[in-house]
Structures are given as structure tokens and as C-alpha cells.
Amino acid sequence: MRLHKGKNAVFIWIKISLSILLFGAFCLPYSLVAVEENKGFSTYNSFEAPLENTLYLGPILSYLSIENREDAQALLPKEEFHGLVAGAKVGYSYLGKGGFYASLQTKFLAGTLTEDIDANARKLHPFSSSSACRLGFAYQGLQGQDIVVIPYAGLGFSFFSEKMQQVQKNYYTTFLPVGFLVTYRPLEMFSIGFRLEWFPDLDAVVEASETLDKSLLVLSRDTVQLRVDFPLTIRSGNYMALSIVPFWQKVGTKGVDSLSVPLTIPEKRRVYWGSNLQLALFF
């Protein structure tokens, strides 16, 4: 059953429009510079990677905090769960000499969280996975090839599941990642970076399963969806690099009202504090 169909369409239109405007505001000035001066776009041939193609993979470890907000109308108490989740990430990126940037990435996380109340606290078993493609342009900064900025936009899909006893909720979200990556190389074989990404949802659906009853519900909208990365990279020769990527991510979803599952989907907030160890191969 789909709820707030007209309202969802308005939010989707607004988010798509803002994302396109942000991406255009980032990329258009860089494109003009490249056309007029035939330079300005970075190439990793002499900066970060010696070749245009990069394959990267590695494990992820994160501390996850899930908070279900209190709902006085539905008499739902506030719930908090905390614990470690682990998983892996694999991806591919292309950065051509003309500055065109493209990447495809997929990752998953799973673990067990504990309710922060007493020794007999309930256990929550979350699982999440996401895949996304991103397209952008690389811009060479004023300090030469020591600084590279890559604004980008893309399309992705994420799945988040939480199971506790006989109750399971599955969240399906199509999202539009918009952000930028700044990389600075203070040393020949070492670089530091900063990535800020906003990923508004295009459509969000939650499936609630309690015993044998199921219902498909459309969330009214997501509230906060942000991610910040701080990649630290050491390059070894021309074909390999090793990175440690500390990250912070926050995802919030509105609660859902339904006739078939009365107010059983509370407002939720997920906060990740973690790190990814990443091996990159250039070819």
C-alpha cells in the first residue's frame, strides 16, 4: 500500500532539482576553465595513480547506533541499540586524462546490536547493503597537481534490514548521491582526502513483517542523509596503494502510518562511526 503519493512526488521533484543544480554549479565552472585553457582537469597519471583505471576492495568495521524516536501518539517508547557491524566494500573507478570521472561501488555491513538498558537487553540484528554509480569531473587546483577536486552526482540503491525476535523490517531506498572529493598530496607517495556526500532519496519503501503479516509502505521522506570520509592513502609503486578511510554517516527516516500495521514504523536515526581498510590496484 502506498501512502502520501502526491506528497512524495513533490519531494522527489524538489530533491532531483536541487541535486542537478548543485552538480551543475560544481561542474560548469570547471568545464569552462578546461575549454578555455585546455587545462585545469587533473590526471592521476602524475598525481594519485599512474593509470586511469582503479579497482579497490577491503574490509569495513563500524560502530552503529540506532535510535527509534519516541512517539507519544502511538505510545511507542524511545529505543536505542548500539554495537559493532562489519562488512566489506568493492569498487571500480575511472579517471581519464580529460578529467572525466566514473565509479561503481558496492558494500555490505552486518552485526548484532544490544539495547542499552540492562543485562537482559534485547538483541537487534541489522544488515545493510548498497550499490551506487557516480559520474563527475576532476579539477586541478591552484597549487598545481597537489590538489584535485572531483564534484560528482549519481544513482544508487540501498537495502537495510533489522530483525528482533519475530519482527523484521526491510527498508528499500533509491537515492541520488551528490558530493565532492578533495585530495591533497603533501608528499610524493602520500595523500589525504576529504569527501562530503549528500544522498537524498528518490523513493523509499519499508516492508514490515510481524509473524505472517506483511505490508508494503512508502515512507513520507527521509530526514538526514549525510556521509563524510577522510581517506589517508600511501602509494606503493605505480600499480598499488593502501588507504585507511575513517568515516561518519547519518541516516534518518520518518515514521509511517498505516491501516494494516498501525503506527509500527517509528521515526528512526542511524549513525555510523567507522573505518575502511582499502587496497587499490591501478591498471
Structural descriptors:
1 helix; 283 residues; mainly beta; single chain; 16 strands; 12% helix; disordered N terminus; elongated; Lipocalin; 16-stranded antiparallel beta sheet
In short:
This protein is mainly beta.
Write the layout of secondary structure elements.
Layout (H helix, E strand, L loop, with lengths): L4 H33 L15 E16 L10 E17 L4 E12 L1 E3 L7 E15 L1 E2 L6 E18 L2 E9 L2 E10 L2 E9 L2 E10 L2 E6 L3 E8 L2 E5 L3 E14 L14 E15 L1
Antiparallel strand pairs: 1-2, 1-16, 2-3, 2-4, 3-5, 4-5, 5-7, 6-7, 7-8, 7-9, 8-11, 9-10, 10-13, 10-14, 11-12, 13-15, 14-15, 15-16
Count of helical stretches: 1
| Spatial extent as radius of gyration | 21 Å
In oligomeric terms, what are we looking at?
single chain
Count of discrete structural domains: 1
Strand content: over 45%
Number of strands: 16
Say which CATH homologous superfamily is assigned: OPCA outer membrane adhesin/invasin
Q: How many angstroms does the end-to-end distance come to?
A: 48 Å
Major beta sheet summary: 16 strands, antiparallel
What structural category characterises the helix and strand content?
mainly beta
Low-confidence parts lasting 5 or more residues at pLDDT below 50? 1-9, 27-49, 259-263
* CATH level 3 topology: Lipocalin
**CATH class term:** Mainly Beta
Mean pLDDT: 76
What best-fitting shape do the alpha-carbon axes yield? elongated
Helix-strand pattern, N to C? HEEEEEEEEEEEEEEEE
CATH architecture: Beta Barrel
